[in-house]
Design goal:
The complex is a heterodimer of chains A (192) and B (158). Chain A has helices at 2-26, 50-58, 74-82, 93-98, 109-113, 141-151, 163-169, 180-183; strands spanning 42-43, 66-67, 71-72, 86-89, 100-101, 105-106, 130-133, 157-160, 174-175. Chain A has 192 residues and is α/β, with parallel strands linked by helices. The longest helix of chain B has 29 residues, at 7-35. Chain B is elongated and about 50 Å long. Chain B starts with 6 loop residues before the first helix and ends with a helix. The chains are: A alpha/beta (192), B mainly alpha (158).
Chain lengths: 192, 158
């Protein structure tokens, strides 16, 4: 009796494995967060001042201003932030509303994978760099969102590995509640 | 005058309730996972147990096993075996969640796709309690078999 139940249970599991194999063969390939590709080199733009503008016209960017990522430090993230590069928060909605990088866009992976179009997509431009972050540490959400954005044509996805806790601890600009773009939507054109 | 249910009535109807609740929940969970295998793959990777290639396979295999076992349980075909498969899965999920809690990983369950009821937020004790409660519905099936309105019963009665 017990053997018969065990045998049948194995047969059910085997049928599931076979069916799963067939389904995966016909499904479009999935991406993983580990598969985030190296980005096209991103040159950190200098804040626009008259002195910088004339210097940039004559000199190429120093090596410290070129990011080949995808992982970036807090310092690099801050310089990108000051250059008005878009930041994407990949955490849950409650975490975003409790605190996020000022002017960041909320875009969790499940919103992208479920086929919905996040409102933030209207404000991001694939040809421009995007900095993605989550809770830092063991959090995978930023890698997942970066992989999905790369699949969607964003060639310069950077990951702020220290995440929001690191950003906040460093005393960089933060905001709470809804994103600025949700409350006062500017004309969609990318950046913040 | 009230009548107490006879053991035979319990043996007929309790397994039916267990089959429909447990099998139905697993069929629904499998449907939601197959709707969004990409999200489920992210969730599996968040548990940091399986190597990437196995996690990829599991994103499709696990919902299919759930779907087949859940459907067989609802229909009452090989009920005890189907219940054994589902309870084994629940046990594996509990071990996975305990591993997440032990290491402090920040990940989502995706057990029912994007539906987070009754457990909201990340993986936690709520999911463990929910899985234990779900496993209880398998007990009448293990004790009495398929019960009423099952294909096994109707075949035996013919």
């Amino acid at each position: 009796m017990a053997t018969s139940i065990l045998t049948r249970a194995c047969l059910i599991a085997f049928a599931g494995i076979l069916l799963g194999g067939v389904v995966s063969a016909f499904h479009k390939p999935l991406v993983t967060g580990e598969a985030v590709k190296p980005v096209q080199p991103v040159v950190i733009p200098q804040p626009a001042t008259p002195a910088n503008t004339s210097a940039q016209a004559t000199n190429p960017a120093p090596a410290s201003d070129v990011i080949t990522g995808p992982d970036i430090t807090l310092d690099q993230a801050l310089r990108l932030y000051k250059a008005s590069i878009a930041f994407v928060d990949a955490r849950r909605r409650d975490e975003f509303e409790a605190g996020h990088v000022q002017n960041a866009y909320w875009m969790p992976a499940d919103l992208l994978t479920s086929g919905q179009r996040p409102e933030a997509m209207d404000f991001l431009v694939p040809s421009q760099p995007v900095v993605v972050y989550c809770g830092g540490g063991e959090c995978d959400a930023s890698k997942n969102v970066a992989a999905l954005l790369q699949q969607g044509g964003f060639a310069q996805c950077l990951i702020m590995t220290d995440g929001f806790p690191g950003w906040k601890a460093a005393g960089h600009p933060v905001a709470t509640g809804k994103g600025d773009y949700e409350m006062n939507p500017p004309a969609p054109e990318g950046g913040h | 005058m009230t009548t107490t249910p006879t053991p035979s009535a319990l043996a007929r109807w309790l397994p039916l309730v267990g089959r429909i609740v447990l099998g139905g929940l697993f069929c629904f969970a499998a449907f939601k996972k197959l709707q969004d295998p990409q999200g489920f793959l992210f969730a599996i990777n968040g548990f940091k147990i399986l190597p990437p290639h196995l996690a990829y396979t599991m994103a499709f295999v696990l919902p299919c096993v759930e779907m087949i076992a859940g459907a067989m349980l609802v229909l009452g075909v090989w009920s005890r075996a189907a219940a054994l498969v589902l309870v084994s899965l629940l046990g594996a999920f509990i071990l996975g969640i305990l591993n997440v809690l032990h290491h402090g990983y920040d990940t989502k369950c995706s057990c029912f796709g994007d539906i987070e009821w009754p457990c909201t937020g990340g993986v936690g004790w709520c999911q463990i309690v929910r899985n234990c409660v779900m496993a209880l519905f398998a007990l009448p099936v293990f004790r009495w078999g398929s019960g009423a309105l099952s294909l096994e019963c109707s075949r035996a009665e013919r």
